[in-house]
Each structure stands twice: as C-alpha cells, then as structure tokens.
Amino acid sequence: MLRDSGRTCFSPGRRDRLTVQVRPHKDPDTFRTAEVPVAHSRWPLAPLPLALALAGCSPAIRSAPEGVPVAADGRRVIDARAIEHSGARTVWDALRRTVPFFTFRENSRGRPTRADHRGRSSIALRDQPLILVDGVELQDFTVLGAMPASDVLEIEVLTGVDATTYYGTNATKGAIRIRTKSGGT
Q1: CA-CA-CA-CA torsion sign (114, 120, 122, 125)
Q2: What tens digit of pLDDT does each residue of 113-153 get?
Q3: Is 69 in the same domain as 98?
Q4: Quick check: 65 pLDDT over 90?
Q5: Side-chain half-sphere of 74: how many Cα atoms within 13 Å?
Q6: Is residue 45 domain-shared with residue 69, that is, in the same domain?
Q7: DSSP structure class, residue 129
Q8: What is the rounded end-to-end Cα distance, in angstroms, of the chain?
Q9: pLDDT, averaged across the chain
Q10: Residue 125: what are its φ and ψ, rounded to 5°?
Q11: The whole model's pTM is what?
C-alpha cells in the first residue's frame, strides 16, 4: 500500500497498473476499486507521482489532522466542545492545540508572538495568516494569551485560496476567524 488516508488507498498491484480504492462518504463500509494503467518505467516507484496526483484531485480524501472536521466547502471549523476537550485555558492554547497547518510561536517568557503557515514562504507576500476576532483583524498576538478559551464559540480556519476571496492579498497564507460567545458575527 502506497498511501492510506482513511478514505482512499493506493496499492501498486502489477507493475503496469495502479489499484485505487475510494471509500464513498455516503457508505463508509464499502470501497470502489479502479485500476489505473501506468506507463512502463525503469523506476520501481513510477506509480507514486500518479498516486499523489490522484490524491490531490480526489474529494474523497478530505480529512484534517487531529480529527478537525472539514466542511463541504473546505473550511475547518473547531467548535466550543472541541476546544473544551483540548484542555486549552486561553485562546492561544486553543489555537496551538486544535488548528492544523500553522505553527504558533512564543517568546522566551511564553507569550504569543506570531503564527506561521507551514510550507512555502514568500518574500513579497505576508507569511502569517490573518487572524480575526469577531470580524476585527488582530494586530497584537499577546491578546490571545489573555483571552479565556471558554469564551470562544468557534474557530474557523480558511485556506489561502478561500481567505483571499474574502480578505484579498492580506490573507494569502489563510485566515483564522475566532467567534466569541459574546461577540458579533
């Protein structure tokens, strides 16, 4: 087996074919199986690039690390119950424990300093995600270390593509929208 995401798995089978199994969302107990022909190659892992390309195109493999649910449009929404279950005391702790694809950095005193999107960076565009609390852009991360996690209704994580649709080029590395129980929309 080359890859197993829980919904899609690839296995090399014969040298000239790649077996792809997809578990449909509606019926998680069954698999649909298809064999994909692969061009002959001297390299033993020739099917691997094809498998990775298929994995990127398949809606059946949408899953988030650490069990973060994925909405139909690709957003990741962490609700108050998941935040409480994480054991976080502050909003900063909740972000560190529940939000995938980001690295949250602290200074030597343990105070929040920055959030970075994992992966490629740019010299021309912003490397940090846009963080909004009740629709207002947050400029100072230390505020998140003082806000109780119990005040959060939900945390919504948008990818760079979705975030730029809403917020323009300030959100090329994504956006994290925090809705509090007492705040606005």
Answers
A1: negative
A2: 888 777 666 666 667 889 999 999 998 888 999 999 999 99
A3: yes
A4: no
A5: 10
A6: no
A7: P
A8: 45
A9: 72
A10: -110, 165
A11: 0.59
